[in-house]
Amino acid sequence: MKRLALILSAFSISVLSAQVDINGGPTNVPVEGVIDGVVLKEIIPTKRMIPYEFVREADMMWSKRIHRYIDVREKQNHTLFFPYDFRNDDLVTGGENWIKNSSRYSLWTIIRENIMKGNLTVYYPMNPLLEDVKDGDQLKYPLEVKRNTSIPFWNDTAYTSLLLTWQMFGVEDKSTRGRYQKTYDGMEDSIDPVTGQYIELPSDYSYFTSRDIVRYHVKEDWFFDKERSVLDVRIISIAPVILDKDRNEYRELFWLYFPECRFVFNNYYTYNGKNDSQWMSFDDYFWKRQFASIIYKQSDVFDRKIEEYRYGIDALIESQKITEDIRLIEHDLWHF
User: Fold this and answer.
1) Residue 117 resides in a domain
2) Is 89 left (phi over 0), alpha (psi -120 to 50) or beta?
3) CA–CA separation, 84 vs 91, rounded Å?
């Protein structure tokens, strides 16, 4: 018992002596030697991910693929939306000015940070060779370039250029178009001696922050496992979504493989408004289905979204009908 206490004490001292993220998740150690609270919160940042129960194909008596969207502006989903983060630097040329909460992050902040670290694989939201084919949820199109973790993110130009070209991390600031490089005296535009053309400066980018991500699209499979006699669900992939004001439509930025995301989400706190001592991880949050959502597509012979055959309030009613049908499946299996 004394040996265990000594080990735990040594671990706490080692964490307290340096302001570092444990497994990526923030701790309440703002500076060296300071604990922002009564105790060092280390359970979530250091806990290991609980694997899913193994399921055999032969034990799946019934299954249904569901696509749903989580609107983070709804009160129940504010845990995914807040707190806001702010960032104004140019990720390509260098520098860092990322203002984040010291104890918990929004879901977008977590995703963005771990993409920058190379912990998550990014998939195109559409076929990169045929952009009208928007089947990115099938995870068929990973980015061709892998993150080079040996150099800082903003120096990995091959990787960052893809994220910016496909508007996954930000959009071009149109107000900075058409700027030309000035001569040393600043009086006239300089001209390329080879081409005879003005030297145009690259446009700036406006990077997405937590405030810009208004939805998350989720693809999941519901199934009945006869081995355990339970109706279960597994999230397959997830995509952050923005409201494209130029086109006045929602746009998926990219898709992520959720089982891979679990290793990341497992070590970040979510907010509990009723008890600050009982914050769970984002992995727990999704596993416990704490979010509110609306179904926008189900597997059917037409492979179409609900909005293609139902509109307005009828689409919401259809979404609720699909939810009730899934519940009835479970009820009927136990009704003799």
Assistant:
1) yes
2) beta
3) 19
Same domain, yes or no: 163 and 310: yes
Look up residue 3 and give its two tokens.
């040996």
Q: Which tens digit of pLDDT belongs to each residue from 212-231?
A: 999 999 999 999 999 999 99
- 212 within a domain of the structure (yes/no): yes
Are residues 98 and 158 both part of a single domain? yes
This prediction has a pTM of 0.84
Q: Are 285 and 79 in contact (CB under 8 A)?
A: yes
Give the Cα separation of 271 and 43 in Å (integer). 15
Task: Give CA–CA dist 246/86, Å, rounded.
Answer: 22
Sign of CA dihedral 52, 54, 56, 62: negative
Minimal CA–CA distance to 25: which of 5, 44, 53?
A: 44
- DSSP annotation of 90: B
| Residue numbers of the domain that contains 152 | 58-169+208-333
